[in-house]
Amino acid sequence: MKQSKLFVNTLREAPSDAEAVSHQLLLRGGFIRQLAAGVYSYLPLGWRVLRNIERIIREELDRAGAQELLMPALQPAELWKDSGRYDAYGPELIRLRDRHDREFALGPTHEEVITALVKQEIGSYRKMPVTLYQIQTKFRDERRPRFGLLRGREFLMKDAYSFDTSWEGLDHSYRNMYEAYERIFQRCGLNFRAVEADAGAIGGEGETHEFMALAEVGEDTVATCSNCGYAANLEMAKSGEQAQGKNQPTTEPIQKIHTPNVRTIEQLSQFLEAAPQEIMKTLIYMADDQPVAVVIRGDHEVNEIKVKHYLGAETLGLADPEAIQKAVGVSAGFAGPIGMKIPVLVDFAVLQMAAGVCGANETDAHVIHVVPGRDFSIEQTGDFRNAEEGDRCPNCQEGELTFYKGIEVGHVFKLGTKYSDPLGARYLDSNGREQTMIMGCYGIGVSRLLSAIVEQSHDDRGIIWPQAIAPYQVHLIVISTKDEAQVTLANELYETLQRQGMEVLFDDRDERAGIKFNDSDLLGIPYRIVVGKEASNGKVEFVERKNNVKQTLSKEELVAQSVFRTL
């Protein structure tokens, strides 16, 4: 492609609202353009990168035995109501009505549609297992689209779905896709981790893993062990504390202390001159409209995902002041586990406290010398807090947890019968008995990968595309379009490299050398060939974008470069 004809405009500065480095560079390089908040056009350079990512995905999924199809983005609301997700999914589901007043949704995902399709097409165990996938535009009405392609309202996604006759079969399908994901992200040049995760709005009945690209701009926190391979999203990360012994409890009797207007941990810590880790914090939640108390150490934070899973609740949220008063008879800040009539969940870290301070369930009062198990019931215990950096690893009990920021680029789920049961996706087994299909689901944020890769692969001059997904493999630059020797040699190289099957962007523009080099650095094509003043001697400069290594080579030496033989 000759750059003079390429549909691209590079920008010297990124728009002021572009916060993430990837957003800035993709805009400046002319890979994407914003149409509305969270909605982007992919210009030719960006589309070429996306097509290369799609090619890798297709190759690996086909290798894994999956079959590609394409489903409608416009989905009947009845399907979502039948699965129970129409109301539960929330405001991110874009809903609309047609001219006949029928309800539809723009697909954020396709569990309902694929289940209805397979239900219609497969009736016997003989046609299973099967894994089907598509690469398609998805729609989610994000509350706050941000960071360019990292959180958008319209995005490109690969979603796959497996259908098995047994849980053992699902285990195989899950592992098969897990390994395919590892190959995909390795080929895309990502530094990533597969971590234990929460199923979220997709749901399911088994294990689930997220694939995280490590990057500071990431909105997720990944906890990894310094000693073993344990890795988990913060919302699922455990601490090894429950394996540790309990501290020797105090023999001091409990004592009520007057604490006027002292409601927060910080205020209580200052008032009693006690460290936050010596205080028991009691928070009141509403789980499916029923009150429950969660007791954690004062320096810790409640992990609502863990609490929700422990209770098996559909919804969980902090109680409002009126609900707190009704549930425990006291305002927020003075609640405590002693004598509480609602269910009390006690975190493992609280159990290890020899004694502590807690609310007295009385306005302007707290209690000191409180011993868990002596002064209040510890019938419901568990890991109910966020893990913290430096916590003992729950897997090996030897290493410490280290935190990294990550961008979720892939997610694999064991759905079980979450969708096949309510939607009636059944088959006849070898005995002629009707059975429910066992499902798995597997997603990759294709357009998000564009940004995640740039977040990891850039320098202060621009993008550095991994070779496998770069928009072009070689950037050929002629310094002076008025120098006959340069133009002749550049055109010869352009034709020769293209005949060898290489994808070449030929900068034939009548621009200053500085502009051409700056644009080349910004676009991030892996290899640059500069045809300049040595052209009359048949020499060119060969540059690797990643490490800026430069060589002066003849045309023959250039074409013989090993890197070109492997492209």
From TrEMBL:
E.C. designation(s): 6.1.1.15
Top EC category: ligase
Protein name: Proline--tRNA ligase
Gene encoding the protein: proS
Keywords of the record: Aminoacyl-tRNA synthetase, ATP-binding, Cytoplasm, Ligase, Nucleotide-binding, Protein biosynthesis
Annotated InterPro entries: aa-tRNA-synt_IIb (IPR002314), aa-tRNA-synth_II (IPR006195), aa-tRNA-synth_II/BPL/LPL (IPR045864), Anticodon-bd (IPR004154), Anticodon-bd_dom_sf (IPR036621), Pro-tRNA-ligase_IIa (IPR002316), Pro-tRNA-synth_IIa_bac-type (IPR004500), Pro-tRNA-Synthase_IIa_type1 (IPR023717)
Organism: Paenibacillus gansuensis
Function of the protein: Catalyzes the attachment of proline to tRNA(Pro) in a two-step reaction: proline is first activated by ATP to form Pro-AMP and then transferred to the acceptor end of tRNA(Pro). As ProRS can inadvertently accommodate and process non-cognate amino acids such as alanine and cysteine, to avoid such errors it has two additional distinct editing activities against alanine. One activity is designated as 'pretransfer' editing and involves the tRNA(Pro)-independent hydrolysis of activated Ala-AMP.
Location of the Aminoacyl-transfer RNA synthetases class-II family profile domain: 38-466
CDD domains documented for this protein: ProRS-INS, ProRS_anticodon_short, ProRS_core_prok
Similarity comment: Belongs to the class-II aminoacyl-tRNA synthetase family. ProS type 1 subfamily.
Keyword Acetylation belongs to the record: no
Chief location: cytoplasm
Subunit structure: Homodimer.
Keyword Glycoprotein on entry: no
Catalytic activity: tRNA(Pro) + L-proline + ATP = L-prolyl-tRNA(Pro) + AMP + diphosphate
A GO molecular-function annotation: proline-tRNA ligase activity
Compartments it resides in: Cytoplasm
Domain notes: Consists of three domains: the N-terminal catalytic domain, the editing domain and the C-terminal anticodon-binding domain.
SUPFAM superfamilies named in the record: Class II aaRS ABD-related, Class II aaRS and biotin synthetases, YbaK/ProRS associated domain
